[in-house]
Structures are given as structure tokens and as C-alpha cells.
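Milestone M4 deliverable, item 7.
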Amino acid sequence: MNIVPVDRALSIYGVLADRSETQGARECLSKHLMKLYIGGEKDQHRLTVHGLSYLRDLDRAIDSSN
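Output delivered:
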């Protein structure tokens, strides 16, 4: 898998959510997107959208635990 969807999702989410990258987010996102890629999703744009959803859910989980 090309690393572009990971970088793109982190960049876009950082701007939209006005948040810096949380520790471990890149690694978790990479693993998540790799599972989707191995599962058959090859479209880079769709992977980016999945990445944005994942980051939103990750932030919500972090916020609810604090």
C-alpha cells in the first residue's frame, strides 16, 4: 500500500479538527488502512476517507476516556 492515504488523512484531519497528531495515531491508522488494503480496497481516495473516519473515532475514544 502506498503511504499517501495515511499522510493525507492525518493532514486533513489535523486541519479540520484543529488538533495535533496524537501519539501512536500514525501507527494505528497505518495498521487499520493496511487491513482494508489487504481486504481489497485499493482506491487511495476511499482509503483516505476511511482514515478520516478512523481518526475521528480515535479522538472520540480518547476524549471519552479523559
